[in-house]
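Form 12-C: Joint structure prediction
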Amino acid sequence: MAEPLLEVKDLKVHFPTDDGIVKAVDGISFTVQPGETLGVVGESGSGKSVGFLTVMGLITRQQAQIEGEILFQGQDLVTMPGDEMRTVRGEKISMIFQDPMTSLHPYYKVGDQIAEAVRTHQKVSKREAHEQAVEMLRRVGIPRPDDRADQYPHEFSGGMRQRAMIAMALSLNPDLLIADEPTTALDVTVQAQILDLLDRLKEEFNAAVIIITHDLGVVAEHCDHIQVMYAGKIVEAGDRRDIYYNAHHPYTWGLLRSIPRLDEAAVDKERLVPIQGLPPSLIFVPQGCAFNPRCPHVFERCRTEVPELLPADGHHASRCHLSLADKERIFHEEVMART
Amino acid sequence: MSVEVTERAEPKPEPEETPLIRIRGLRKLFPITRGILFQKRVGNVHAVDGVDLDIYKGETLGLVGETGCGKSTLARVIMRLYEPTEGSIEFEGRDITHSTGRELRDFRREMQMIFQDPFASLNPRKTVGAIIGTPFRLHNVVPRNKIKSEVQNVMELVGLNPEHYNRYPHEFSGGQRQRIGVARSLALKPKVIVCDEPVSALDVSIQAQVLNLLEDLQEELGLTYLFIAHDLSVVKHVSDRVAVMYLGKIVEMATGQTLYRNPKHPYTGALLSAVPIPDPDLAASKRRIILEGDVPSPIDPPSGCRFHPRCPNAQFPRCSEEDPPLEPHHPGQVAACHFPLEDRAIIEAEPAGSR
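Section 2 - Result
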């Protein structure tokens, strides 16, 4: 296999607080190949955003205890000095955020904000930068980009703003685009437009994309690989077919069973099967498997021993003590039976 | 995959039954004014523009649509939180369109609301006991010394620990806060509860807990729900009938299953095709109807059918000139479209091959 674009090795991000150490990310390892789309799924507080803010260099060693390695094209981003990191961020890796309302500056014209990003990294004149901004707005499907570039963010609708954010993120032709809940604040129809746009631009710019989301539906349609996070750890990782048709972790089962499905047979209203209890505090993570207090299949070993992500080198891995035969049996009896 | 799905025959309520809530020709316009001293009316936001709706006892009526389609305004007009501009609202046969004072208070006791954001809808300075107890105090239905035990009963009903009576909202998680909101709305034993996006701010696993709670309460207390959401899969799951709203009008209404199997209005089709499905094969096989652009401004809605500028099937000039009325299609299904979609599901269930 070719050299991975991004390789994260045993990354830990811990925040010391007065109440104790918040283990937001507690040892995650994964790789992203050039041109692939990775989906990262988890509930709020599972550490998914913190992990990728660290990859972006937006959480630094001044704010948190960071251990492990983040190798991007062979360079370690954790130990990279700030000014070098600044050239990587934006030019090589860029990020779009959940709320396009708060991530665009309300005082500046949209075109100027995109041009600013261009001028920060490239030696071009204001005029050229502006032209580039207009061109980017056109490529993300904003009608009349010339006029739109001279408007302020409040004159854009939610979907338009997210398109403008994507235009800004792609203006420097990055190799990796991280999208943190890019469609959560948007209507379903606009969500579909934005996700299609991301797919199309990924081809056009030949970038790898990481989509962070809590919605298993979004990643089903757009991601090649998926990893599920819980309490700062990856609990299951695999191809999308592995996750949807052969999931191995009780938490993934819980997520699959708790969403209402459009295609469910509604002869009798089926009850949803929620995951019992609440996600744990990241300061007092439960002993053993972090999911054990909410897991319906818990047994003695789960309470004492932290499960490893196994098989370690395999494509489809999960962090659970149940035997493979049990996992497959339970998945087919309880989860697939619903659909 | 799903076994043979027998079409759910009819919407639950029989047509001859009198509806609990009957809405006719309801409109709500918000004036746009200019000038400071002499405010001149220069236009109107047509938030709700001619809605007829019947809600029957014991059913859940779902209301879906994009942001800005007027679904929340409609709910607030029905609750009489906004004054309707035109039209009538009847509750149990009584006209409450212009009720005031005592009459309005009595009506409000019968109808309560759950809000979207469990963080913004609870006063952070009041204890849970005080929040849930307020309806009792306002309506004088329970003697003062009995309020505490009543509140604790309601707390138990929604799955909160009654011992947490003296805690503050910040001590609860998002899902539990939404339970507090549910408890408050149940305090006066209302007949109807309007749920305005009650689960869209919650994580998926918690969302399922709240949806199940709402279902249990309906069964136990015989409640009627008006359930508003933008997520079609949630609405279909909880609702007996679903109304689809676009720019202040209802464009289609049917049982969830009919809507899913045979959408008639192209807008419904587009909404269905946009819903992400957590099943890669099924998602790949679905028909895509991608809508261009955003919802037009309700200040100056398009002529004729309001959907025509975004509609993939629009035929001119009819669609841009003539406003289509709601016409019956399948049993219990009405849709407002000149050129309705043929009978075909948007999401075709493939035979289980690879599994």
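Section 3 - Comments
Chain B is about 30% helix and 20% strand. The mean pLDDT of chain B is 86.
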